Amino acid sequence: MRLRIDFAASIPKDVASPELNEDAWAHNEELTCIALSDGASESFDSRTWANSLVSKYVFDQRFKAAWVEEAVREYAQSIDFDNLGWAAQRAFERGSFATFLGLKLAENGTDLDILCVGDSLAMHVRRGAVLDTYPFQQPEEFDAHPTLISTRREANQFLDESGFFSKASTTWTVAPGDVVYIATDAVGHWLLTEAVTCAETMETLQGLNVETEFQALVLDLRNVHRMKLDDSTLIRLVVE
Amino acid sequence: MSYQAAIQRSAPTAFLFLVDQSGSMGDRMGGSEKTKAQFVADVLNRTFMDLVTRCTKADGVRDYFEIGVIGYGGAGAENALSGALSSRVLNPISAIEANPLRIEDRKRRVDDGAGGLVEQSIKFPVWFEPRSNGGTPMCEAIRRAGEELAVWCDAHPDSYPPAVLHVTDGESTDGDPEQLAEALRQFATNDGNVLLLNLHVSAQAGNPISFPAGESALPDQYAKLLFRMSSLLPSHLVDAVQQKGHRVSSESRGYIFNAEAAEIVDFFDIGTRASQLR
Description:
heterodimer, A: 240 residues, Phosphatase 2c, domain 1, five-stranded antiparallel sheet, 12 strands, 30% helix, 28% strand, globular, B: 278 residues, alpha/beta, Rossmann fold, two-stranded antiparallel ribbon
């Protein structure tokens, strides 16, 4: 089986500045794995960092502490520190931060392995009904400060904690026709607040076909403060 | 709800520092070789550096903040920044980044990522020099701050409200500042009133009192006056104060009495928190 990308759109927090969108996603050619990352606003180059993480994942899904360490090293090597101005030097040292959500179809074709660090969300839907969400089940869970993967080694020590990866992972059993949504936090919070509990909203979600429809939805929700002002990414995957 | 506005380049916020530069600020801090003026200048320079760093992305400095310093002492109350920053009190953070008085080069040893250490050059900018002479024209300083922020609030109606961080070690020598402070706190954007936070710097022994919820524990009329001049802490600053390990409540005000070194650093850190940058 594979994960067909049925819909994907990312609306920046400032729609006039799409180049500042710090969400990133990537998938492998076989469409058996996909990754989504949300770069934190207050960091030096979270757009590059988020892109680095998702690009690395689609080539190598062995996401462990050593994997992140290697990503940090590659990121650091891409920066000419001595030639940065004083502010850029300090901002670089303060670090760049991003969430990470990775989905991988196991070789048995029915297990979907999910790894999540931070507050992006995956939602499993079968015949219009929500079977599960991960890592959160309640919208209030988005209120906590999210765990973020950093370009500073010392900020990633949580990855070495015993049991971290088992707590950050789950497996869903999927079947052909199942739909899996993945979203960064602003959209994920809205999914848990409104879509999970409202059949009409779920229909709206399932009916999204083009980016302009999603942009109109996001802007409407932002205007009435039902969706946080943030880069907003939604991807709909169909298992086939 | 107030104090919720996202800080964006199209809607920045402002931090205005009021710094007592009267003669008594030349006295040594308790338990330190540095004078109070030197210590405050060091912390202020580091705060500037931290604010610039928060706004610096790989593609440049984003103007989320406007920053200014009004110093008051023997020469009255005036813009305490110089050079290109002297023509206006509140300057965008990109102008602050571009115009330090000087940048000092310092060396330090850092992890080379392969188990060793390498020496690295690091730059330290300085914007603000310590000064201490004359009296304490606090009323003039607060009046000047009000003039600046009235104009600023009119020009930025949708912004997170400005915060005024006032640092002093003595009594006003040009009158009672309480009514002026109240007037300053009345200026507002659509997101809330100007926040006025006051810090009393100590040169003597005795425990600091941080973010009190009432006057009763304060030792004298002057401390009580500064307490009354201070804003109630909005909820996100209550959270920030709690994270620093202080006991605090919804009645707590932005005031620290008899601050020593650690409290001065905390005060600047907490006072320059704002809602999330976007």
